[in-house]
Amino acid sequence: MLRAANAHAAHAARAASRAYSGSAVRVPQLATFRLPEIANEPTRDYAPGSAEREQLLAAVAEMQSQTRHIPLVINGREVRTGTVLEQRNPGNKAQVLCTYDSAGPAEVDAAIEGALAARSKWEALPLYDRQAIFLRAADLTASKYRYKLMAASMLGQGKNIWQAEIDAATEAADFLRFNVKYSAEIYAQQPPCNAPGIWNRSEYRALEGFVYAVSPFNFTAIGVNLAAAPALMGNVVVWKPSQGAVLSNAIAYDVMREAGVPDGVMQFVPGDAAAMTKRVFEHPEFAALHFTGSTHVFKSMWKQIAANIDRYKSYPRIVGETGGKNYHLVHPSADVPNAVNNTIRGAFEFQGQKCSACSRLYVPRSLWPEFRERLAAGVEAIRQGPVDDPANFMGPVINQAAFDKITNYIEYARNSPDAEIIAGGRYSDADGFYIRPTVVVTTRPDFKLMTEEIFGPVVTAYVYEDADLDATVDLIGATSPYALTGAIFAEDRQAAVDLSARLLHTAGNFYINDKCTGAVVGQQPFGGSRASGTNDKPGSPALLQRFISPRSIKENLGRISGYTYPSNITSN
Ligand SMILES: NC(=O)c1ccc[n+]([C@@H]2O[C@H](COP(=O)([O-])OP(=O)(O)OC[C@H]3O[C@@H](n4cnc5c(N)ncnc54)[C@H](O)[C@@H]3O)[C@@H](O)[C@H]2O)c1
Ligand SMILES: N[C@@H](CCC=O)C(=O)O
Asked: Residues in domain Aldehyde dehydrogenase (predicted)?
C-alpha cells in the first residue's frame, strides 16, 4: 500500500517536473487579471507589553543562542567552498552571528552559467506568475519572516527595533509589492496610435544576459530590491550581499526561495567583493549592474565596465545609488524645536549610517543660541547601547573600519582651530563599536567635515549671518559633490518657495519642515544625482525601466497587391 502511494507520489512529481520544463501543452492566458490592491505595509509600534515586542525579542534571543551557517546557493543547491568567513554582532564583538561560505572564481562562474541557463524559461513565465511569486515574498516578509529579518538586522547591522521595522519589515515588503504594481503599469504602456489596418504593440523583454546585484550593509530592504526588482522584470540575477549583512540577506533569500523563485533565477553568492566583481565584469553576457553603496566603489566599477566594453554582447545598464552629504538648512523663520528634533533624528538614527543622514547643518545667527542649547542637550540625553534593549535610541556602528574612519573625523575636528565639538565626541570599541552622537560647529563652510561623507553619527554645523542667507544657499551646492537629500526648515511660505527653487539640483529627495531621511516606497521614490548616483529612483517605475529592453511589434492586418505608391503614378 505504502509502496503504491510512494510510486504514485514519484509519478506525480515527475509529471509536475515535466510540466514545468515546458515540454507539456501550455495553457494560454485566459484573462487579463487585476492585481490585488497595493498599499504600504502598516508599521507596528512595539509598545511595552505588546505581543509584537514579545515575539520580536524572542526572535532576537533565539538568534543570539545559535550560529547559523550560510552556504552559497547556486541553482537551488547549497554550495560549500571551504573558505568560511563570519559575521559578528557589531554591538558585541565576541558574538559570532553566522558563518558563511565565500565564493571563489569557480563558484562565480557556476552562478553566472546557472543563471543564464534559467533565463529563457523565467523570461517566458507570464508576468502574472512572476508577480504572484513576489507578492508571496512580500507577505512572507511581513508575516512569517518579519521578526527573523528584523532580529538579523538588529543584531547584525546594529538597528534598534524601529529602525529594523522600517527597513527589514515594511520597506522590504513595500519594495516587493510596489514593484509588482509598477510592472503592471509598464506592461500596460502600449503605443497610443495605430494607422488604419495596423495593430502596434510593445513587449517588455528582459535584458539579454544576467544582472549583477551588489548590496550595501545598511538596509536589508535595499538588498531585497536590488535582487528582486530585476528578477520581477524577467531577468536572472547574481546577488552579492555585503559582508556586513550576510545573515539578514540570507533570510531574505530564504523568503525568495519559499515564495517560489525558481532555481538559478536568483543566485546568492557572498564573496570577496573586488575579486568577484572583476570576474563578473569579464563575462560577455554581463547585462546590468544594480549597485547601492559608496561613491568610490561605484566609480571603480563603472571604469571596469568601460574597460571591458568590447567583450559584451550588449551595452550593460549601470544603475548605482551612492553616497551623500545631506543638509538641513534652517531659515530664520523656522520653528526651532521642530528643526532641532528632526536634526537629531535625521543625523543620529541608525548612528548616521543612512545614505540620507543629515551631516551638515546651516543655522542663522539669530536662532543659534536657542538651537545650540536644545541640540546639545537633546544629543547628550540620547540613550545608546545594545539593540536588544528597546530603550536604546542608538546602537553601534557596523565594524572596526567604520569606527576608525568616523573617530578619525572626530579627532580631526577636535584638533582643528576651525572647529569645536559641542556634544558627544566620545567613543569606545572595547565591547562593540560605539560612538556617541557628536555635534561639531565650524567657522568654515568648506571645512572637511562639511564636505566629505562620514557615514556615522557626526553632524557639523555652520552658523551663518542672517543677512548672508543668499550666499549660504549657494554654498550648499558648491561645497559638496553630492546631491542626495536635503531639508529646509521655514515657517515663511515665500522663503520655502524660494529656497526650493534655489536648491533644485542639490538633492534628489527634498524635504520641507521634515528630516532628510526616511523616504517611503510608493510615497517618496528615493535617489540622488551628481556624485550620489544615477537617480533611477528605487521604489518607482523608473527603476524597473532600466531592467527591460522593449520590443516594438507592428502587425499589418491588411495585405498589399503591389509595391508602388500613388506618388509613383505619372499622368501619362
Ligand atoms: N544612495 C542610496 O540609496 C544609498 C543607500 C544605502 C547606502 N548608500 C551608500 O552606501 C555606503 C555604505 O554602504 P557600504 O559600506 O556597504 O558601501 P560599500 O561601497 O563599502 O559596499 C557596498 C557593496 O559593494 C561591495 N564592494 C566593496 N568594495 C568593492 C570593490 N572594490 N569592488 C566591488 N564591490 C565592492 C561591498 O562588498 C558591498 O556589497 C555609503 O556611501 C552610503 O551613502 C547609498
Ligand atoms: N531610503 C532611506 C535611506 C537609504 C540609504 O541608506 C532614507 O530615505 O532614509
From this structure: 85-550
